[in-house]
């Protein structure tokens, strides 16, 4: 009997390991394909400025780089110089500055031709109107031009970067809003590129009830600073090494992330304690990445109190996730950081003239947020009645609708279209439009589901009254709480997910909705505009942004993915 049991256990373990290996291989294949597609789209979008022959650069072969300065900072220049290198500029062979050959009588592209070393795996270059020194440089907004090289023999890029995120939120252990999701997703994405990524967080009391952290928190170090003893523990969260700062002054002995009268004082203390931890443990990250007003103080504290005294290596990146909060702190970080970003290009355009940003606009840019498609995946989600993908999406969503209706007491009759809202109920989120949509959904014979709550008691009372009015016919359900497992079910069950924000730095809801096969209906603002392309009005823009096509009709491309209104 025991022998049979052990055989079964061994077979089950082998089977589980095989299935896990197959899942990992599938994920790797999908990630590789996504990266290749993104590179191809970027290449097509850059063709009017720069392209190469051959298109795919081969190590040990010759290549010609073509450059059209029209529409760049070098427009109208009489001379163009090319300066290049390889392997993130670390290769011993450097190119130029070399004067590029001018275009012919009817041409627009300057060109330069050279051989590629056999051990090169990346081409790096910039253009200028001078052979060196003061002049005008097209360095792609400070990021330089970079192209991959195939067939490298023995070549490699320089050592990985060490990135330290300092934040007060991180999904799933300390999530209040999208900030927590983005810290996790961004850190994972950078780590997958081969870099060393660590996350530093406060150690809140509610971590003691976290199933993610249960049994794996370990003591890392302790030290005296700021008039108290500070203990640092560590654990792995979503594959990321995290460190938790726990001062014995009680600053983070709290049941929530925010909400105390002294939040600014607590978070400023945490910023400096995180820097003290890096100094005390001899860490020298290449990049300190701080997020929103809550860790904005990292930038000033680093340069004034730590960089001159031993923490010499890092540069500071600051990301604004929502300019609506802590503008004084954001102004300070914008002044002290080396680069600062916000979470979508359109939001960057919308807020670029704000006094907190304007004087440092030269180092400000918008980079669109994304979701981690492995963490938000209907193909592997224990909270759904069945897993699904594009091949069986109709059955998967039908099963999810049935289960959701049972769970939130909606009528199963006629399998009506479900319109969902998953959101905090604040004026930013367009609460008046949410109320309007609830009435209209029922008028049109649909069902309406809302998951979320209002921090403002007056606004919560208004939604309580709305729920009382609409619940009677079993076609509306209002769940006034934070419930992430239920949110998965709602995304999977919904036909339409509504995001009518008055302003939205980026928004993740619309991307999660699409991941689960629901159609987003949004206002054209901020990151909603950058991620949702209206089926009636955005075909040209969608073709360019998603596929790199400048003519959607010629290329027979329709990349629209939702509905948007002003």
What is the first-to-last residue Cα distance? 70 Å
Number of strands: 24
Secondary structure class reads alpha/beta
What Rg, in angstroms, do the CA atoms define?
Answer: 26 Å
Strand line-up in the sheet with most strands: 12-13-14-11-10-15-16-17-18
Shape: globular
Which key features would you list for this structure?
33% helix; 6-stranded mixed beta sheet; alpha/beta; globular; 9-stranded mixed beta sheet; 22% strand; 566 residues; 14 helices
Tell me briefly what this model is.
This protein has helices spanning 2-46, 178-192, 263-280, 297-306, 327-336, 345-351, 393-408, 431-443, 457-470, 484-493, 509-515, 526-531, 539-547, 552-555, and strands spanning 50-53, 57-58, 62-67, 81-86, 95-99, 110-115, 122-128, 137-138, 145-150, 162-166, 196-202, 218-225, 228-237, 240-247, 287-291, 315-320, 339-342, 364-366, 418-422, 447-451, 476-479, 496-499, 519-523, 563-565.
How would you characterize the overall build of this protein?
With 566 residues, this protein is of the alpha/beta class. It is built from 14 helices and 24 strands. It has helices spanning 2-46, 178-192, 263-280, 297-306, 327-336, 345-351, 393-408, 431-443, 457-470, 484-493, 509-515, 526-531, 539-547, 552-555; strands spanning 50-53, 57-58, 62-67, 81-86, 95-99, 110-115, 122-128, 137-138, 145-150, 162-166, 196-202, 218-225, 228-237, 240-247, 287-291, 315-320, 339-342, 364-366, 418-422, 447-451, 476-479, 496-499, 519-523, 563-565. Helix 3 (263-280) crosses helix 4 (297-306) and helix 7 crosses helix 10. The longest helix is centred in the first third of the chain and has 45 residues, at 2-46. It is globular. The protein starts with a helix and ends with a strand. The mean pLDDT is 94.
């Amino acid at each position: 009997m025991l022998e049979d049991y052990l055989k079964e256990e061994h077979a089950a373990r082998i089977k589980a390991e095989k299935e896990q290996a197959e899942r990992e291989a599938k994920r790797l294949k999908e990630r590789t394909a996504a990266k290749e597609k993104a590179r191809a789209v970027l290449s097509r979008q850059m063709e009017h400025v720069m392209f190469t022959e051959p298109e795919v650069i081969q190590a040990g072969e010759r290549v010609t780089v073509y450059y059209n300065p029209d529409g760049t900072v070098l427009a109208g220049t009489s001379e163009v110089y090319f300066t290049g290198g390889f392997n993130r500029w670390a290769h011993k062979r450097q190119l130029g500055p070399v004067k590029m050959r001018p275009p012919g009588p009817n041409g627009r592209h300057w060109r330069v031709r050279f051989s590629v070393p056999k051990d090169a795996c990346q081409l790096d270059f910039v253009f200028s109107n001078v052979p060196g020194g003061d002049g005008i440089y097209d360095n792609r907004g400070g990021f330089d031009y970079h192209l991959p090289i195939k067939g490298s023999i023995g070549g490699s890029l320089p050592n990985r970067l060490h990135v330290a995120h300092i934040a007060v939120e991180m999904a799933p252990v300390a999530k209040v809003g999208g900030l927590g999701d983005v810290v996790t997703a961004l850190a994972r994405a950078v780590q997958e590129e081969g870099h060393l990524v660590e996350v530093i967080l406060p150690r809140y009391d509610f971590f003691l009830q976290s199933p993610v952290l249960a049994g794996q928190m370990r003591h890392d170090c302790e030290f005296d600073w700021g008039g108290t003893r500070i203990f640092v523990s560590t654990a792995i969260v979503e594959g990321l090494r995290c460190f938790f700062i726990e001062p014995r002054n009680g600053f983070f002995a709290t049941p929530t992330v925010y909400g105390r009268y002294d939040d600014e004082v607590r978070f400023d203390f945490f910023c400096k304690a995180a820097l003290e931890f890096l100094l005390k443990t001899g860490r020298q990250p290449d990049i300190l990445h701080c997020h929103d007003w809550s860790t904005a103080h990292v930038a000033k504290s680093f340069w004034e109190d730590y960089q001159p005294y031993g923490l010499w290596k890092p540069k500071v990146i600051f990301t604004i996730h929502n300019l609506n909060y802590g503008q004084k702190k954001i102004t300070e970080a914008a002044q002290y950081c080396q680069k600062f970003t916000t979470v979508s290009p359109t939001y960057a355009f919308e807020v670029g003239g704000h006094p907190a940003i304007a004087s440092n606009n030269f180092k400000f840019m918008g980079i669109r947020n994304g979701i981690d498609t492995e963490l938000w995946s209907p193909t592997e989600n224990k909270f759904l009645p069945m897993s699904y993908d594009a091949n069986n999406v109709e059955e998967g969503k039908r099963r999810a609708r049935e289960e959701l209706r049972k769970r939130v007491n909606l009528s199963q009759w006629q399998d009506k279209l479900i319109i969902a809202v998953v959101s905090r109920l604040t004026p930013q989120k367009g609460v008046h439009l949410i109320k309007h949509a609830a009435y209209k959904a029922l008028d049109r014979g649909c069902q309406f589901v809302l998951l979320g709550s209002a921090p403002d008691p007056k606004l919560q009372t208004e939604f309580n009254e709305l729920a009382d009015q609409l619940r009677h016919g079993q076609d509306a359900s209002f769940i006034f709480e934070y419930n992430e497992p239920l949110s998965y079910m709602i995304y999977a069950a919904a036909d339409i997910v509504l995001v009518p924000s008055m302003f939205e730095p980026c928004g993740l809801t619309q991307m999660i909705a699409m991941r689960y096969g629901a159609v987003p209906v949004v206002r054209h603002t901020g990151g909603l505009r950058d991620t949702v392309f209206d089926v009636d009005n955005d075909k040209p823009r969608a073709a360019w942004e998603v596929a790199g096509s400048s003519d959607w009709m010629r290329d027979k491309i329709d990349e629209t993915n939702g509905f948007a209104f002003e």
